[in-house]
Design goal:
Blueprint lengths: L1 E3 L7 H22 L12 E7 L18 H8 L2 E7 L5 H10 L3 H4 L16 H7 L3 E6 L16 E4 L12 H13 L5 E7 L28 H10 L6 H30 L7 E6 L5 E2 L5 E2 L6 H4 L3 E4 L6 E8 L3 H9 L11 H6 L7 E5 L7 E5 L2 E5 L6 E5 L15 H23 L11 H6 L8
Parallel strand pairs: 2-6, 2-7, 3-11, 4-5, 4-6
Antiparallel strand pairs: 1-5, 3-10, 7-10, 8-9, 12-13, 13-14, 14-15
């Protein structure tokens, strides 16, 4: 899975890329003149997006975790922005990352199966926009859903799929850091856009020593963190009413979070020694969360509630004043937001939050739409402090007030029928608009994916 493409411009055309870099400076200054409260006189030179798979927000100390799972991510958050209410567009990787790359919500992009749907070529990607603006672009992924064959390499001059060794499923492949750092240093003469996607803390919850002993995980049977056992428990809902079993599984997950945190800390420490480190914008986020019985489910994909869709979003770089940013933010708005922060024209959908992030507060009317896996998914619409969840064509709907019920467990629709009706109409309007947008495009084609990796992660028998 190695894809290498040279930039589309050469010779005199390469100068156009540097002219685009100058235009980025003009766009950033214009942003200041138009009312950005704070910010640099020029945009960040480089941008690095690090995605830690299946990382739920409240697994980190900076988001309220009781365990000391994340000292390196917490230190990173302390010198940047911690977005309080970031939500993925789906509670599983493929649909979520498709939205992250294109700004389209799932009903519009329709990349909904399990590593079988190809990102439609008509949809622009953030990597394409950055490449057109003169950035060197590269992606490095260990997730078999996020591969060049699935369309995710579009816009990247280089996109490496670096899967975990079949005999070492608990570790980030050493090649991820070495290949990424080698590319990063080789492109130092150009502005750089990089995407690095690693699997931990995704199951198996089986971190290498010494993390396998953290939080009492060493006293928990190892098989409780392995994919086959977890998948069987979810299918039988065998952990739903067993608090001790859920606590044991959570201990192994949290140990895996600590391992992912340490891996990120080591990568960041190396990058801080690089020239131009002060001109780099770095983002860390999850593509979805993970359940531990909050609604009867474990793992992810089964529902769109907060445990499976609320994710960390941490940003640090020039012009960002450290702090916690309250409000709701959809990861589908990240391409538009990064485009404005970088001074890169973004041709796709989405609503930029760049000025809000620079000001340290998201607008209260922002909303985020998330879906679960399956052919009859649950959809969750979040706006302000409220969440409305519905299965279109089904019997289930519920309303939650997250300020007092952050895990969305107490249905308030009987006491707030008017509010529930308002959000129901809004959710239905968003789905109708997305379906209309999708109707004008061919259905996404399919690809086979890395069958061995998909089988090891428990996806081959799951429902599309």
């Amino acid at each position: 899975g190695l894809v290498r493409r040279r930039p589309g411009r050469a010779g005199a055309q390469r100068a156009t890329g540097w002219l685009s870099s100058g235009m980025r400076w003009v766009l950033a200054c214009s942003c200041l003149l138009l009312g950005c409260a704070q910010g640099p006189a020029a945009p960040p030179r480089d941008v690095l997006v690090v995605l830690l798979d299946a990382l739920r927000a409240d697994a980190l100390r900076c988001y309220g975790a009781e365990r000391d799972t994340s000292p390196h991510l917490d230190a990173f958050a302390a010198r940047g922005l911690c977005v309080e209410g970031a939500f993925a567009s789906a509670s599983y990787t493929l649909a979520s990352v498709a939205s992250l790359f294109t700004g389209e919500r799932p009903a519009a992009h329709r990349v909904l199966g399990l590593a079988t749907n190809v990102l439609p070529p008509s949809l622009p990607t953030l990597a394409q926009a950055c490449a057109e603006a003169g950035f060197a672009t590269a992606g490095f992924s260990s997730n078999p859903h996020v591969v060049a064959a699935g369309g995710f390499g579009r816009g990247f001059e280089r996109f490496d799929y670096l899967p975990r060794d079949r005999f070492d499923l608990h570790s980030v492949p050493a090649s991820v850091s070495t290949e990424f750092l080698g590319w990063w240093r080789s492109e130092a003469a150009r502005p750089r856009f990089a995407y690095v996607h690693v699997l931990p803390p995704h199951q198996p919850y089986d971190p290498p020593p010494p993390f396998d002993q953290r939080f009492g995980a060493g006293a928990v049977p190892r098989e409780l963190g392995l994919t086959d056992r977890l998948t069987a428990l979810q299918q039988a809902r065998g952990a739903a009413d067993d608090p001790l079993l859920l606590a044991q599984i959570r201990a192994r997950y949290d140990a895996n979070v600590a391992y992912a945190d340490a891996w990120f800390g080591e990568l960041l420490q190396t990058l801080e020694l690089e020239p131009d480190a002060a001109q780099r914008l770095t983002l860390v986020l999850g593509d979805h969360g993970e359940g531990f019985g909050e609604h009867g489910d474990i793992l992810h994909g089964a529902n769109p509630f907060a445990e499976m869709t609320r994710v960390p979003l941490l940003l640090a770089g020039p012009g960002l004043t450290p702090g916690v940013v309250p409000g709701v933010f959809s990861l589908a708005d990240l391409p538009a937001t990064l485009g404005e922060l970088l001074g890169v024209p973004w041709p796709g959908p989405g609503r930029s939050a760049a000025r809000e992030l620079l000001a340290g507060r998201l607008d209260p009317d922002r909303e985020a739409l998330s879906r679960s896996m399956g052919q009859r998914p649950l959809w969750a619409l979040r706006r302000g402090d409220w969440t409305f969840v519905q299965q279109p064509g089904g019997d289930f709907s519920a309303l939650f007030l997250r300020s007092v019920d952050p895990l969305e467990q107490l249905d308030r629709s009987p006491a707030e029928p008017a509010h529930a009706a308002e959000l129901r109409l809004r959710l239905e309007a968003l789905l109708t608009a997305d379906q209309a947008a999708a109707a004008g495009r061919p259905a996404p084609r399919r690809h086979s994916g890395d069958q061995g990796a998909l089988r090891a992660l428990g996806y081959l028998d799951a429902e599309d």
